[in-house]
Amino acid sequence: MRLLIVSVLGMVLVVSSILPAKASECSPSRNHRDASWKPYYDGRLIDSHFHIPSPLDIEPPRPVLGNNVTLADIDCTLKSEGTSNIFAFFPVFTSFSYQNFIDWTHKAEARYPKRFVPFIMPPGKDDVPPTMGATKLKKMLKHNRGLFQGYGEIGLYDLPNRRADDYAPDATIFQKIYPVVRQHKLMVYFHPGDNQVDNFEETLADNPDINFLVHGDQIQNDISNLMDQYSNIYYSVDMLYGDQYLLRADGTKQAFLDGFTDFETIMAIDLATWKPLIEAHPNRFLWSTDRGDAVWTFDRNVGYTLANYGRAFIARLDPAVQEKFAYKNAERLMTVSGL
Ligand SMILES: [Zn+2]
Question: If you measure from the C-alpha of residue 291 to the centroid of ligand 1, how many angstroms do you get, rounded to a whole number?
């Protein structure tokens, strides 16, 4: 057990710590499941949106892999909450040796086979353009053949230093990336920007053999129409908890946990927002959390709460849809991707 030395009123006390556990210290049980949130889905879960921290401390105060969050911590949290796999976005930052980043993906696969469904996430320098180009991507994938199942998450939205109009899904940079992605049988995960629906339609039509996953406010209102027309678009739902995103980098664990106090109210909002959409497109929506921007988002109690709420939400869907949303749609995407 790790120890934490705390000074109280000049006295030094040694107390057991609540820091993330080492692998050997992870003893998950099913006791954490919250029976008060009935009805309750008790089956398998796949989280289809999970950010792995960078191993380099280059965006403080963001978490650092191998430092304040380890692969063992992540594995333990997932085991504890009962999530079997994650679509794991492994960052590769430009200006550094890419293999140093990608070696962590190899480590994850070696230590926890199949738990991480690896996506390569290579943003451009300072997010302009939003991704590294096709040549670099091709090289990274060639040297790590068969490791990745997806490409993304890539944000296409406005930032202070870039405009969504310049980086729609059919922008030149992506037109060059799609053949690379196709060759390696990768899914593509985009967070679209405003006013990109027409471009998205063209991209979906032009690339029927590539599966696109998306999330975000910018496309939420159009997703039903897109799904009606194209079979290669999927949506991962992480804006639960009263249709709000509680896992922000500038948030806190306590504010997150407090967000669930009024369970009935937030559940009613989420059911009104998502249940009709999910049930109308039972094969296209996936459960997810979008964790990873702050150290506390990897915490085991946060994991329990995310999964518990997800299970309570899933239990309120049409029984024929529950397993599809919880894991089957994600699992199907895993089996059609990869070499
Ligand atoms: Zn994300």
Answer: 7
